[in-house]
Amino acid sequence: MELDRALFKAEHLLKQQRYDEAYQEVNRYLALDPHSIPALMILTQAYLGLNKDENADEIASQLLRKDPSDADILFLKGVTQAQLGERKSALKFLNSALAFDPLKTQAYGLIASIYFKDADFENSLEAADTGLRIDPHDELCLNYRSMALLKLDRKEEHLDADHQALKSNPMNPLTHA
Questions:
Q1: Per-residue pLDDT reduced to its tens digit, 133-148
Q2: Full-model pTM
Q3: What angle do CA 107, 166, 164 make, to 5 degrees?
Q4: What does the alpha-carbon distance between residue 136 and residue 157 come to, in Å, rounded to a whole number?
Q5: What's the DSSP call for residue 101?
Q6: Which of 59, 84, 97, 150 could tie 75 with a disulfide, CB 3.0–4.6 Å?
Q7: Which letter does DSSP use for residue 8 in this model?
Q8: Is 38 in contact with 65 (CB distance < 8 Å)?
Q9: What whole-number distance in Å separates Cα of residue 34 and Cα of residue 27?
Q10: Whole-angstrom Cα distance, residue 6 to residue 55?
Q11: pLDDT in tens, 93-149
Q12: Rounded distance, CA 49 to CA 150, Å?
């Protein structure tokens, strides 16, 4: 019971972007259960929030050795690879995650961002649109759809997409940028 509460608290702190506190809390949990996959996933995310990308990638690799067919772990490995600038590797892991869970909208948003950074705006738009067919309110997909449309000189569609993104979350800094 006490362990479950500690893990819940770590996850809650993570959602509040209180990464240092989440890191401390999850480590308390891991001291008693060092092989807990959910705790190691939280630790990976805390490391990412603390800009300790190499540590996050190392834990994600450990998780993959434990369960190489878990879509959430594959997604997390894709995130760590993207943070490290390993875009091809990130795409590989994200596409693997989607093979196991084709409804994982966050993966489409991250794929759209990778293609956008590589100036592959058509593929960025395609990934964003695929994610939006699953969740029409996904902020990352909405934003990369809008940005890709602008880069593709489809200004009218861009304005509609930008308006939709602002309507979905008027406080999102990426949308405003």
A1: 999 989 899 989 988 9
A2: 0.86
A3: 75
A4: 16
A5: -
A6: 97
A7: H
A8: no
A9: 9
A10: 22
A11: 999 999 999 999 999 999 999 999 999 999 999 999 999 999 998 989 998 998 899
A12: 30
